Amino acid sequence: MFLAKGTVLGFDMKIPRVAVVLKIYGLNEKINDLPAREDELKLQKRREKILDRIKQAFSNPQNMFSYSGSNIFIIFYAIKILDNVKLKKEIWNSIFSAKDIFEKYNLTFLATVGSFYPGLSGLKKSYDEAVKALEIQEQIKKADKEKGTITLAQDVSLEILLANIPQDMLHRFKKLLLSHNQQLIIMNQEKLVETLKTFFKSDLNISTAAEKLGVTRNTLSSRLDKVKELTGYDPRKFFDAVKLELLILIEEFRLS
Questions:
Q1: What's the pTM?
Q2: How many Å is the Cα radius of gyration of the chain?
């Protein structure tokens, strides 16, 4: 039915597409002190204006649009070349071209992009990935309050993998990883957790991480030594770093 309707509406259903999920924040905020019904009508008109502007921004007539709820817009984005770097840039440019409507209504957004999979079932997989990536990004951005970003599913592939592992398996994995309760203390020490996250994002480079954290190399080394003392894992060693990274993700996203 989806294929038939798409063809009737003039879409080439053989064109490869990926799912883009665009969530807009502030869209449903009460406009003024009007009665509820009038206020909802104005909100609806605002949503329609924004959807029209998004359609203009994603001007390729082969892009397909939908929405979920009142502030999530879905674009099944027609791709020409399967190049994730170019794809991310294209989608960013499209959203950026609609920045006037976001600025007009003082809105922020998060956008996520699913991977490409062939066929109609592949489009659903792409959509499911984009939705899961959005959930993960919302948890991340809840901490740093940053909005206005675009994330490919591959950017959070490890988090998506963990989110799809059964809870009992994650729990067993954590039990294997943690030999004693002392190791969990680290998760309550914000400074050490932030140090580890920055150290891992810096590819285990002490100089780079120290600069990002605004501390000396000696201070950073002392913190890493403290992590080793508490957990038995040395963050400077790759395989130990992998275990600590997984522990942080499991705890941070409440995956167990």
A1: 0.75
A2: 22
